Automatic annotation (TrEMBL), chain A:
It comes from Halobacillus salinus. Gene3D superfamilies: Alpha-helical ferredoxin (1.10.1060.10). Its EC number is 1.1.99.14. Pfam families: CCG (PF02754), Fer4_8 (PF13183). Component of a complex that catalyzes the oxidation of glycolate to glyoxylate. Its cofactor is [4Fe-4S] cluster. GO terms for molecular function: 4 iron, 4 sulfur cluster binding; glycolate dehydrogenase activity; metal ion binding. It catalyses: (R)-lactate + A = pyruvate + AH2; glycolate + A = glyoxylate + AH2. It comes from the Bacteria. This is Glycolate oxidase iron-sulfur subunit. Signal peptide: none annotated. Residues 5-36, 55-79 form the 4Fe-4S ferredoxin-type domain.
Automatic annotation (TrEMBL), chain B:
The keyword Flavoprotein applies. Transmembrane segments: none annotated. Residues 34-213 form the FAD-binding PCMH-type domain. This is FAD-binding protein. Pfam families: FAD-oxidase_C, FAD_binding_4. The keyword Oxidoreductase applies. Belongs to the FAD-binding oxidoreductase/transferase type 4 family. One of its GO terms (molecular function) is FAD binding. Keywords: FAD, Flavoprotein, Oxidoreductase. It comes from Halobacillus salinus.
Length: 421, 467
């Protein structure tokens, strides 16, 4: 048994098989079997460790797990499901010949700023050429169901605009806090505009904002796919990048990245130097909504006469445990009517690369979510993570709704926040 | 391949017969002990499929095990002889409240908590409240005759069932009972099936009784320096003319465990605490509360705490709910029993538990529905320690002996299943068990519906070890 599997095996004993996690699990609901429930998955990992089932037997159930962590929030015995899942993924990853496409995706593409910028630029070209509007009518299929996402991507900035962005934003008046902004790879390539809004909101709240040049991908997608080595490498690079200056906060605007970064200490052995550095890093990581609430430096000056609903990022809810701040901000926007979802904690099905690699299952989960969204009658669906944002845009398109999906920061900008400092 | 698999697949929609190894393992367990692989899992979508499957099972002599949410604590849904697990949790959920009749008709897959939620929309309640009500199905509750804290005042599942629709083990659809509160037409098959643990029929519909939701509730917590006094205070309360809706007990080990798990400020220095809930109109509650306070003072209670707000009260009940997970932190494996004694014998039972605990050198804690004598003694041990598990087996046996000697029973609500089957004769005598066995034989001549439950097989013993 590998160390990872042994560790996961030990953790499975915390599960008393009470089934309390069943009602919380989206895949149990959509796939309708215990095999695709948290309790079933934990049991399968145990069976594999005991040699009763093979690694292939657990492959499908484990890969179909969204990793949303809803199960952990209701588990009475605090089973460390996240750890069990990651170790199981690592075992699967070792047993498989990783395909060339996947290894390119994880080893080179996602962590590389150059490639990510190229993705943004390519999308820009794609949109400018008008190809996005006909993508779902093209006679051939794009890989990874990318055709489904064409036409829902936001307007891209031109390459020139991308290059224009500074790495340091100072205020005219003295700053209240110094913030290191974590741009994120998907956020920065696809939602460049939302990153600009984030910087603006921080400045108006009274912060000085720095974008450390050596930052890289947070490593969440790697960790969740069992690529622990790569995740550690990326974590180290980020920790070092943010040690170059003294920051009060390390701010991100992507729940998935935030959750990974507050979890950096678990990547290193306790007592080691890297562990200590990871703790120092993680303790300052905050979601943009938390920081805006804490700094309380904005006065919203324009009415936003709309009904909105809020779709929280699962990792923000269950791992970062940031629930109230986004709602608090939304309640402050004048004129805005907030209609909360009945089941905000139910995943939208985006889940990292899940909506690409498990597209059909992801759409089943999305359908459940959209039913809830439709019921609210919202004009806008507000999210706090790029994956959820894309997924909600897709959901809206699939349902043929009039609504729009926006990142929280962009909605806040609509209300013309004035600086109170 | 099994010769019955093909015909089985033919009578169901595609994808509803699961045979992958991963699926078989996923239906091999419940919330108790033991792991048994079925040969197939079928997920039915209507009652006619249930009937067809049972006919087929009789034809081929293959055992069928009904299953709800798999939260059973006694091994009820385990496929101990292979065969087919019949997953009833995917039947379409249906809850039809008839407010004028104060009844509700439900499909068995519905979660019990959802029935109550629906009833509340009409100012009504479905009284049985097992702690697992938000997960377990009503089908499972009916089969196990489950109960909860409110059982003290309102009774358990069987007290709330008016009628059933069931599929007999031979695959015939029949109705028992009806829609009315009174009904003496023929034998009471409804009550026979409720609590039969899926061995006599598969429940496909039930009509249940609803009652008006009490307008108000009040909670109090009382701490004692001695377990025995706590037990006496419970008896005094119950004979005082006041009938609380809940009366729960936790011993010191449980209180300490909860405080270590999620501190809320329970008195860790108390030997035992009891939680009382009264329900009814505000005016009545005031009088009843004073009465109970006077009793507690008279019994030299260490502390009497009356929460100032609903949130405070909710916190105390939350603490009670945390006992089960909290004690699991003492040691990983929890052997949870629910032997029940006449209410006046609770102090004696507590003494016996203490002796057993010392004799076998085990961690034993007790908490539960003291108001109805249904205590949950729990042994905390480690499945990976064979010697300790052996001692636990012996301790469980001795707990059953103690409960029966005190005039009690093996199980108050969790059922017999596989786990307590070997002890049935201890309580009922051989003729008593034989009369039950004969009923089973008449209902299920080919012994295909949930075999291996309730009735022990030759030489069967309690085993808490997975080889
Ligand atoms: C943490 C925890 C707390 C619990 N608390 C309580 C409590 O407070 N009170 C209490 O009484 N119990 C309690 N239980 C035990 C358990 O939840 C109940 O026994 C429950 O009724 C089981 O329902 P289920 O849907 O999970 O059924 P399962 O576990 O799937 O099955 C239970 C039995 O019912 C049979 N069955 C299921 N559906 C049908 C059907 N439609 N027709 C015929 N037979 C059927 C099965 O064959 C099996 O024998 C608790 C369990 C856990 C894990
Ligand atoms: S809630 Fe926790 S202990 Fe219960 S079955 Fe799920 S993972 Fe296991
Ligand atoms: S992480 Fe989400 S999808 Fe996976 S088992 Fe838990 S609740 Fe289900």
């Amino acid at each position: 048994m590998t160390d990872g599997l042994k560790h996961a095996y030990d953790l499975t004993f915390d599960c008393v098989q009470c089934g309390y996690c069943l009602p919380a699990c989206p895949t149990y609901e959509t796939m309708e079997s215990e095999t695709h429930s948290p309790r079933g998955r934990i049991n399968l990992v145990k069976m594999v460790a005991e040699g009763k089932a093979s690694v292939e037997d657990m492959e499908e159930p484990i890969e179909k797990c969204l990793g949303c962590m809803a199960c952990t929030s209701v588990c009475p015995t605090n089973v460390q499901y996240g750890s069990i899942l990651e170790n199981a993924k690592e075992v699967l990853d070792e047993s498989k010949q990783t395909g060339a496409v996947e290894s390119f995706l994880f080893d080179d593409f996602i962590p590389s700023r150059r490639w990510m910028d190229r993705l943004g630029v390519a999308t820009w070209l794609f949109q400018k050429s008008g190809a996005d509007r006909i993508a779902d009518r093209l006679p051939w299929k794009m890989p990874l169901h990318l055709e489904a996402f064409a036409g829902i991507l936001p307007e891209m900035p031109s390459p020139a605009k991308r290059n224009e962005r500074a790495t340091r934003y100072m205020r005219k008046r003295p700053a209240v806090k110094k913030v290191g902004f974590f741009t994120g790879c998907i956020m920065d390539s696809v939602f460049f505009g939302s990153n600009e809004s984030t910087i603006e909101l921080l400045l108006r709240s009274g912060a000085e904002v720095v974008l450390p040049e050596n930052q890289t991908c947070c490593g969440a997608l790697h960790a969740h796919s069992g690529k622990k080595e790569k995740a550690i490498e990326l974590a180290k690079q980020n920790i070092a990048a943010y040690e170059e200056e003294q920051f009060d906060y390390i701010v991100e605007n992507a729940g998935g990245c935030g959750a990974q970064m507050i979890d950096y200490p678990s990547l290193f052995e306790e007592g080691t130097e890297w562990h200590e550095r990871a703790v120092a890093f993680s303790s300052r990581v905050k979601d943009i909504s938390e920081v805006l609430v804490e700094m309380d430096g904005l006065a919203f000056s324009k009415e936003v006469d709309q009904t909105v609903t809020y779709q929280p990022s699962c990792h923000m809810t269950y791992v970062q445990k940031v629930v109230e701040p986004p709602l608090e901000l939304l309640r402050k926007v004048p004129g805005l009517q907030l209609e909360e979802l009945e089941r905000p904690g139910f995943c939208c099905g985006s889940a990292g690369v899940y909506n690409l690699v498990q597209h059909e299952d992801s759409m089943d989960v999305l359908d459940v979510k959209m039913e809830d969204v439709c019921r609210t009658g919202a004009d806008q669906v507000v999210t706090s993570n790029p994956g959820c944002l894309l997924q909600m845009k897709l959901g809206i398109k699939r349902e043929g709704m009039e609504s729009e999906a926006v990142h929280l920061v962009d909605l806040l900008m609509e209300a013309d926040p004035e600086s109170r400092y | 391949m099994n010769k019955w698999l093909k015909p089985l697949e033919d009578c169901l929609e595609k994808g509803r017969v699961l045979t992958e190894v991963a699926d078989l393992y996923s239906y091999s367990f419940d919330a108790s002990f033991g792991e048994h692989l079925p040969e197939a899992v079928v997920q039915v979508k209507d009652k006619y499929e249930v009937a067809r499957i049972l006919k087929l099972a009789n034809e081929y002599g293959v055992p069928v095990y009904p299953r709800g949410a798999g939260t059973c604590l006694s091994g009820g849904p385990l496929p101990v002889h292979g065969g087919i697990v019949l997953d009833l949790s995917k039947l379409p959920a249906r809850i039809e409240v008839r407010p004028d009749d104060l009844t509700v008709t439900v499909s068995p897959s519905v979660r019990t908590g959802d029935i109550n939620k629906e009833a509340e929309k009409y100012g009504l309640m479905y009284a049985p409240d097992p702690s697992s009500a938000h997960v377990a199905t009503i089908g499972g509750n009916l089969a196990e005759n489950s109960g909860g804290p409110r059982g003290l005042k309102y009774g358990v599942t069987k007290d709330h069932v008016l009628g059933l629709e069931v599929v007999t083990p031979e695959g015939e659809l029949i109705r028992t009972g009806g829609q009315t509160i009174k009904n003496v037409t023929g034998y009471d098959l409804t009550k026979l099936i409720v609590g039969s643990e899926g061995t006599l029929a598969v429940i496909v519909e039930a009509t249940l009784k609803l009652m008006p939701k009490p307008p108000a509730v009040r909670t109090m917590m009382v701490a004692f320096n001695e377990v025995r006094t706590a037990g006496e205070a419970i008896s005094r309360t119950l004979t005082s003319g006041v009938l609380p809706s809940k009366l729960e007990f936790m011993d010191q080990a449980c209180v300490v465990a909860v405080e270590q798990f999620q501190p809320i400020g329970l008195p860790v220095d108390a030997a035992a605490i009891i939680l009382v809930e009264l329900d009814g109109p505000e005016e009545a509650l005031r009088v009843e509360q004073e009465k109970i306070e006077a009793i507690m003072k008279d019994m030299k209670a260490k502390d009497i705490i009356i929460p100032e707000s609903d949130e405070e009260a909710a916190k105390l009940w939350h603490a009670r709910k945390q006992v089960s997970p909290a004690i699991a932190k003492i040691k990983p494996t929890k052997v949870s029993e629910d032997a029940t004694v006449p209410r006046s014998k609770i102090p004696d039972f507590m003494d016996r538990l203490q002796v057993i605990k010392e004799k076998y050198n085990l961690e034993v804690v007790a908490f539960g529905h003291a108001g109805d004598g249904n205590l949950h003694p729990n042994i905390l041990c480690d499945q990976r320690d064979a010697d300790e598990m052996k001692r636990a087996e012996l301790a469980v046996e001795e707990m059953f002996e103690a409960a029966i000697e005190l005039g009690g029973t093996l199980s108050g609500e969790h059922g017999i299943g596989t786990m307590k089957a070997p002890f049935m004769e201890m309580e009922l005598g051989d003729v008593g068990v034989d009369m039950m066995r004969r009923i089973k034989q008449v209902w299920d001549p080919n012994n295909i519906l949930n075999p291996g439950k309730i009735f022990a097989e030759k030489g069967q013993k309690l085993v808490l070890r997975n080889d």
